[in-house]
Design brief:
It is built from eight helices and eight strands. By secondary structure, the protein is an alpha/beta fold. Helix 2 links the parallel strand 2 and strand 3. Helix 1 packs parallel to helix 2. The longest helix is centred in the middle third of the chain and has 16 residues.
Length: about 250
Protein backbone atom coordinates (compact mmCIF):
# COMPACT_ATOMS: atom_id res chain seq x y z
CA UNK A 1 0.00 0.00 0.00
CA UNK A 2 1.29 3.46 -0.91
CA UNK A 3 1.26 6.29 1.64
CA UNK A 4 -2.05 8.11 1.25
CA UNK A 5 -3.29 11.68 0.96
CA UNK A 6 -6.77 10.64 2.07
CA UNK A 7 -6.39 9.65 5.72
CA UNK A 8 -4.58 11.77 8.34
CA UNK A 9 -5.16 13.49 11.68
CA UNK A 10 -4.43 17.07 10.60
CA UNK A 11 -4.23 18.81 7.20
CA UNK A 12 -1.00 17.74 5.56
CA UNK A 13 1.99 20.06 5.32
CA UNK A 14 2.84 19.50 1.66
CA UNK A 15 6.10 20.99 0.42
CA UNK A 16 6.11 21.87 -3.27
CA UNK A 17 9.24 20.98 -5.24
CA UNK A 18 9.91 22.76 -8.55
CA UNK A 19 13.44 22.02 -9.72
CA UNK A 20 15.16 21.22 -13.02
CA UNK A 21 17.48 18.42 -11.93
CA UNK A 22 17.22 15.36 -9.66
CA UNK A 23 19.99 16.72 -7.44
CA UNK A 24 18.16 20.00 -6.89
CA UNK A 25 14.90 18.14 -6.19
CA UNK A 26 16.55 15.88 -3.62
CA UNK A 27 18.30 18.81 -1.92
CA UNK A 28 15.02 20.69 -1.59
CA UNK A 29 13.13 17.60 -0.43
CA UNK A 30 15.65 17.04 2.37
CA UNK A 31 15.56 20.70 3.40
CA UNK A 32 11.75 20.62 3.42
CA UNK A 33 11.72 17.44 5.52
CA UNK A 34 13.95 19.21 8.01
CA UNK A 35 11.37 21.99 8.26
CA UNK A 36 8.55 19.54 8.96
CA UNK A 37 7.13 18.54 5.57
CA UNK A 38 4.71 15.61 5.83
CA UNK A 39 4.18 15.18 2.08
CA UNK A 40 5.77 16.42 -1.12
CA UNK A 41 4.32 17.93 -4.29
CA UNK A 42 6.78 17.39 -7.12
CA UNK A 43 5.94 19.42 -10.22
CA UNK A 44 7.41 17.33 -13.01
CA UNK A 45 6.81 19.94 -15.71
CA UNK A 46 9.88 21.73 -14.31
CA UNK A 47 12.16 18.67 -14.40
CA UNK A 48 14.31 18.68 -17.53
CA UNK A 49 13.29 16.05 -20.05
CA UNK A 50 16.58 14.18 -20.03
CA UNK A 51 16.06 13.39 -16.33
CA UNK A 52 12.60 11.89 -16.72
CA UNK A 53 13.72 8.30 -16.47
CA UNK A 54 12.50 5.58 -14.18
CA UNK A 55 15.87 5.54 -12.45
CA UNK A 56 15.91 9.29 -11.78
CA UNK A 57 12.29 9.53 -10.68
CA UNK A 58 12.71 6.56 -8.35
CA UNK A 59 15.79 8.19 -6.81
CA UNK A 60 13.91 11.47 -6.28
CA UNK A 61 10.89 9.74 -4.76
CA UNK A 62 13.02 7.51 -2.52
CA UNK A 63 14.47 10.66 -0.95
CA UNK A 64 10.96 11.42 0.39
CA UNK A 65 11.49 8.66 3.01
CA UNK A 66 8.07 7.06 2.66
CA UNK A 67 6.05 10.27 2.84
CA UNK A 68 3.18 10.61 0.33
CA UNK A 69 4.10 12.13 -3.03
CA UNK A 70 1.87 14.33 -5.20
CA UNK A 71 2.90 14.89 -8.83
CA UNK A 72 1.81 17.35 -11.50
CA UNK A 73 2.42 17.33 -15.25
CA UNK A 74 1.05 20.68 -16.39
CA UNK A 75 1.40 22.07 -19.91
CA UNK A 76 4.08 24.71 -19.29
CA UNK A 77 7.81 24.59 -18.54
CA UNK A 78 9.50 21.53 -20.02
CA UNK A 79 6.04 20.24 -21.09
CA UNK A 80 5.38 23.27 -23.27
CA UNK A 81 5.21 21.28 -26.53
CA UNK A 82 3.65 18.15 -25.02
CA UNK A 83 0.27 16.79 -25.99
CA UNK A 84 -2.13 16.07 -23.15
CA UNK A 85 -1.54 12.37 -23.79
CA UNK A 86 2.19 12.90 -23.18
CA UNK A 87 1.44 14.84 -19.98
CA UNK A 88 -0.71 11.91 -18.84
CA UNK A 89 2.02 9.38 -19.63
CA UNK A 90 4.44 11.30 -17.41
CA UNK A 91 1.96 11.01 -14.54
CA UNK A 92 1.68 7.26 -15.05
CA UNK A 93 5.47 6.88 -15.14
CA UNK A 94 5.70 8.80 -11.86
CA UNK A 95 3.00 6.60 -10.36
CA UNK A 96 4.96 3.47 -11.26
CA UNK A 97 8.10 5.02 -9.70
CA UNK A 98 6.49 5.61 -6.31
CA UNK A 99 4.18 8.64 -6.48
CA UNK A 100 0.74 8.36 -4.86
CA UNK A 101 -1.37 11.31 -6.02
CA UNK A 102 -1.66 12.32 -9.70
CA UNK A 103 -2.93 15.78 -10.64
CA UNK A 104 -5.21 15.58 -13.68
CA UNK A 105 -5.94 18.98 -15.19
CA UNK A 106 -9.68 19.63 -15.30
CA UNK A 107 -9.44 20.33 -19.03
CA UNK A 108 -7.05 17.50 -19.89
CA UNK A 109 -7.87 16.10 -23.35
CA UNK A 110 -10.19 19.07 -23.98
CA UNK A 111 -8.37 22.35 -23.37
CA UNK A 112 -10.71 25.09 -22.17
CA UNK A 113 -10.03 28.61 -20.89
CA UNK A 114 -13.41 28.57 -19.15
CA UNK A 115 -12.75 27.31 -15.61
CA UNK A 116 -9.99 24.99 -16.93
CA UNK A 117 -12.69 22.34 -17.21
CA UNK A 118 -13.27 20.11 -20.25
CA UNK A 119 -16.89 19.84 -21.36
CA UNK A 120 -16.90 17.53 -24.39
CA UNK A 121 -18.07 13.97 -23.87
CA UNK A 122 -14.93 12.62 -25.55
CA UNK A 123 -12.59 14.54 -23.22
CA UNK A 124 -14.56 13.61 -20.10
CA UNK A 125 -14.54 9.94 -21.07
CA UNK A 126 -10.75 10.06 -21.59
CA UNK A 127 -10.37 11.65 -18.16
CA UNK A 128 -12.49 8.94 -16.56
CA UNK A 129 -10.42 6.24 -18.27
CA UNK A 130 -7.19 7.81 -17.00
CA UNK A 131 -8.61 8.08 -13.49
CA UNK A 132 -9.62 4.41 -13.61
CA UNK A 133 -6.11 3.45 -14.73
CA UNK A 134 -4.48 5.44 -11.91
CA UNK A 135 -6.78 3.77 -9.38
CA UNK A 136 -6.04 0.37 -10.91
CA UNK A 137 -2.33 0.98 -10.36
CA UNK A 138 -2.92 1.83 -6.69
CA UNK A 139 -2.78 5.60 -7.02
CA UNK A 140 -5.02 8.48 -5.97
CA UNK A 141 -6.35 11.28 -8.16
CA UNK A 142 -6.57 15.01 -7.67
CA UNK A 143 -8.39 16.95 -10.39
CA UNK A 144 -7.41 20.62 -10.68
CA UNK A 145 -9.09 23.66 -12.18
CA UNK A 146 -7.31 27.02 -12.13
CA UNK A 147 -9.91 29.65 -12.96
CA UNK A 148 -7.47 32.61 -13.05
CA UNK A 149 -10.31 34.93 -12.07
CA UNK A 150 -12.83 35.81 -9.39
CA UNK A 151 -15.61 33.23 -9.36
CA UNK A 152 -18.97 32.89 -7.64
CA UNK A 153 -19.94 30.29 -5.09
CA UNK A 154 -22.20 28.67 -7.68
CA UNK A 155 -19.36 28.43 -10.20
CA UNK A 156 -17.16 26.74 -7.60
CA UNK A 157 -19.91 24.28 -6.75
CA UNK A 158 -20.28 23.45 -10.45
CA UNK A 159 -16.55 22.78 -10.84
CA UNK A 160 -16.44 20.66 -7.68
CA UNK A 161 -19.40 18.59 -8.82
CA UNK A 162 -17.75 17.93 -12.18
CA UNK A 163 -14.51 16.79 -10.53
CA UNK A 164 -16.39 14.47 -8.18
CA UNK A 165 -18.51 12.95 -10.96
CA UNK A 166 -15.39 12.18 -13.01
CA UNK A 167 -13.96 10.13 -10.14
CA UNK A 168 -11.38 12.39 -8.49
CA UNK A 169 -10.47 11.63 -4.88
CA UNK A 170 -9.45 15.24 -4.22
CA UNK A 171 -11.04 18.34 -5.76
CA UNK A 172 -8.61 21.19 -6.39
CA UNK A 173 -9.85 24.65 -7.32
CA UNK A 174 -7.62 27.72 -7.56
CA UNK A 175 -9.39 31.08 -7.80
CA UNK A 176 -8.33 34.71 -7.77
CA UNK A 177 -9.54 37.56 -5.59
CA UNK A 178 -9.36 41.15 -6.74
CA UNK A 179 -10.12 42.51 -3.26
CA UNK A 180 -10.07 41.17 0.30
CA UNK A 181 -13.85 41.60 0.34
CA UNK A 182 -14.08 38.31 -1.58
CA UNK A 183 -12.56 36.24 1.24
CA UNK A 184 -15.90 35.49 3.01
CA UNK A 185 -17.37 34.32 -0.31
CA UNK A 186 -14.57 31.83 -0.78
CA UNK A 187 -14.85 30.56 2.80
CA UNK A 188 -18.53 29.90 2.16
CA UNK A 189 -17.64 28.12 -1.10
CA UNK A 190 -15.27 25.81 0.82
CA UNK A 191 -17.92 24.96 3.38
CA UNK A 192 -20.62 24.33 0.79
CA UNK A 193 -18.40 22.11 -1.37
CA UNK A 194 -17.49 20.00 1.66
CA UNK A 195 -21.18 19.61 2.55
CA UNK A 196 -22.06 18.73 -1.05
CA UNK A 197 -19.51 15.96 -1.64
CA UNK A 198 -17.64 13.27 0.26
CA UNK A 199 -14.40 14.14 -1.58
CA UNK A 200 -11.37 15.86 -0.08
CA UNK A 201 -10.96 19.51 -1.08
CA UNK A 202 -7.87 21.57 -1.87
CA UNK A 203 -9.13 25.14 -2.31
CA UNK A 204 -6.65 27.94 -2.98
CA UNK A 205 -6.94 31.63 -3.77
CA UNK A 206 -4.41 34.00 -5.31
CA UNK A 207 -4.32 37.78 -5.40
CA UNK A 208 -5.94 39.61 -2.52
CA UNK A 209 -7.39 36.40 -1.09
CA UNK A 210 -4.12 34.53 -0.63
CA UNK A 211 -4.76 34.26 3.13
CA UNK A 212 -7.09 31.36 2.20
CA UNK A 213 -3.88 29.39 1.59
CA UNK A 214 -3.13 29.77 5.30
CA UNK A 215 -6.58 29.55 6.88
CA UNK A 216 -8.43 27.31 4.42
CA UNK A 217 -7.71 24.14 6.44
CA UNK A 218 -9.52 25.72 9.40
CA UNK A 219 -12.66 25.40 7.28
CA UNK A 220 -12.02 21.93 5.87
CA UNK A 221 -9.33 22.24 3.16
CA UNK A 222 -7.34 18.99 3.20
CA UNK A 223 -3.75 20.25 3.00
CA UNK A 224 -1.43 23.23 2.94
CA UNK A 225 0.76 23.77 -0.11
CA UNK A 226 4.00 25.31 1.18
CA UNK A 227 7.55 26.04 0.11
CA UNK A 228 10.77 25.61 2.05
CA UNK A 229 12.11 28.69 0.27
CA UNK A 230 11.15 30.70 -2.77
CA UNK A 231 13.39 29.57 -5.61
CA UNK A 232 13.18 30.80 -9.21
CA UNK A 233 10.27 28.51 -10.14
CA UNK A 234 8.28 28.49 -6.89
CA UNK A 235 4.84 30.06 -6.63
CA UNK A 236 5.38 33.37 -4.78
CA UNK A 237 2.00 33.14 -3.05
CA UNK A 238 2.74 29.81 -1.39
CA UNK A 239 3.61 30.37 2.27
CA UNK A 240 6.77 29.24 3.99
CA UNK A 241 6.61 25.74 5.45
CA UNK A 242 8.15 26.76 8.79
CA UNK A 243 5.53 29.47 9.32
CA UNK A 244 2.59 27.26 8.36
CA UNK A 245 3.79 24.46 10.62
CA UNK A 246 3.67 26.82 13.60
CA UNK A 247 0.11 27.81 12.68
CA UNK A 248 -1.08 24.26 11.97
CA UNK A 249 0.46 22.73 15.09
CA UNK A 250 -1.25 25.27 17.34
CA UNK A 251 -4.76 24.85 15.97
CA UNK A 252 -7.19 22.27 17.31
CA UNK A 253 -8.86 20.44 14.40
Amino acid sequence: MKPTFLNYDKPLLTAMILCRTPEACIEKIKASAGDGAEAFGIQLERLRREYRTKENLTEIFNSCDGKPIYVTSYRYGENDSFSDEECAQLLLLALDCGATLCDIMGDMFGRSPQYELAVSEEAVNKQKSLIDEIHRRGGEVLMSSHTYKSTTIEENLMIAKAHAERGADIIKIVNNAETADEIPKYIEAIQRIIKMTDKKLLFLVSGEGRIIREIGPNFGVCMYLCVQNHGPYDTPMQPFLKNIKLIRDNIRF
